[in-house]
Structure formats: structure tokens, C-alpha cells
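User: Hi! I'm working on a homework problem where we have to compare a predicted structure to a textbook description. Could you give me the structure for the chain below?
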Amino acid sequence: MSRPRADRPLVIQHGDATNARTSPRAAAGAASSAPGGQPPARVSFDSALIRHGAVDGGWWPRSRNALTELPALIAALDARPGVRVQRLAIHSDEWDEIPHQLTADGSHFVRVDRFTAVPRHTVNVTTTGGREPIALLVVPPDTSAETAWAAMNVAATNPGTPQTADILTAKQIQGP
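Assistant: Happy to help. Predicted C-alpha cells:
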């Protein structure tokens, strides 16, 4: 697998999954939709966001700071056709500086809920329009690039994976 370069978008096809170092719009050649000059989210998901296993895809944040990481994730998901993020549910023990809400694209508010009942290494995304919630594996920020991209590919394409922890354990990156 090739390593991502900072000077250009990297898109890796694996089955029906798309790994985008940038948002899907940026990967198609448009300007990055990451807000405020922040690096775009590193995400991988089935192109139709159809759940094959426990999750719809994976996200590899650069830090545990929810205030700086969540806006890029929202931008990457909002760039998907028919997706507009309304609410995020995250595990409160895995994040620092968790806001109660964020403004996305300066035009809509996204509520951020923190729970201890949400499975670890998972973010649940509620969107407008009655769509089924999107569940993403959260790969720990200190994971090596090769391992993180492999785990995100499994999250996006592997049918029947029972839990996110199983994906991380299989890729030998189980966090604390």
C-alpha cells in the first residue's frame, strides 16, 4: 500500500470502500472541505455507506481533541451525497475538550453528545432526513499509518465483524 503524501489527496479503492485522506469532494479534485485550514479527515467508508459489519467505515483522527478533530469529520461526511450531519455521539473517556455543539459550514449546528455507553472506538452519526445512523470505527491517533489504513479498510468492507474492538485487535492496535 502506498503511503499518503501531504501535498496531494490520496484515494485508495478497496472493494466498494473509498479511503480518502481528504474529503470525498477533495479527492474528486475540488478544494478540501475541511474547515478553518484544518487538515481533512482521514476516513474510509463504503461508497454507499451501507453497513457490512458493526460499522460503516473508519476514521483516524490526528489527536484526542474533539474540538479540533470533529469539524473535519463533519465536513467529510457532509460532502457525501444525501448526508448532512445533525448529531455525533462519542465515548466520553476517549476524547479531550468535547464541545456540546459545533457549527458546520457556518450554516448549521451539530450537537455533540458524550456517553460511556457508546462502544469504545466508535462515533455514531445521526443525519437529517431520516437516514439510518452512521457508525464509524475510531482508530486511535497514535496508530501507525499502515495499520490504521488497514483497520479502516476492514471497517468499511468486512461483512459480519461483530465489534469495533475485534477490528482493532485483529490489526494489533487495541488502544487503552
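For your comparison, note the following. The chain has one domain: 11-170. The two ends are 27 Å apart (CA to CA). Good luck with the assignment!
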